Amino acid sequence: MRVMFYQLSRDPAHAVVPLLAKKSLEAGARVLVVSGEERQRAEISRGLWTLSPQSFLANGEASEPHAERQPILLSGEVAPANGARFLFLADGHWREGAGVAPFERVFYLFDNDTVEEARQVWKDLRGREGVTKEYWAQEDGRWAKKASE
């Protein structure tokens, strides 16, 4: 599993998730976006629907009918009803356990309020078999890779 840490310093999750999700879909992956905050999931959904004037990224809530059909599924818990192989943890909180294990990639987005939790997760994942990590930060409007293990 590849865990990609994204430190949000300029843009909020609802602006970053659509960009990363678009690239994930282009790579042929289905996506599960998890946030314990209903308001944040609604903001992310709006961002996905309005990413660009020429297109949108179809998405839906896990609680709605036909969740299994959604290329991008939003949920309050790690339950990939759509068969997602890419997981986005948008609220800055890591979810431990078997739920995270089946994903090929985990995009862990955190901000200044959750940076200490992210640092602890980085340490906790150190040396875990089958796990690679990358740390990305925003610099001059672009993402820069700062570390990897």
Instruction: Calculate Rg over CA atoms.
Output: 14 Å
Helix content range: 10-25%
Major β-sheet profile: 8 strands, mixed
Q: Termini, distance in Å? A: 12 Å
Structural class comes to alpha/beta
What shape does the CA trace take? globular
What is the N-to-C order of secondary-structure elements (H for helix, E for strand)?
EHEHEEEEHEE
Low-confidence stretches: none
Strand arrangement, major sheet = 3-4-2-5-6-1-7-8
Alpha plus pi helix count:
3
Per DSSP E runs of 2 or more residues, the count of β-strands stands at: 8
Mean pLDDT, as a whole number? 94
Report the sheet-strand fraction. 25-35%
Structure commentary:
With about 150 residues, the protein is α/β, with parallel strands linked by helices. Helices cover about 25% and strands about 30% of the residues. It is built from three helices and eight strands, in the order βαβαββββαββ. The protein has helices at about 15-25, 40-50, 115-125; strands at about 1-5, 30-35, 60, 70-75, 85-90, 105-110, 130-140, 140-149. The mean pLDDT is about 95.
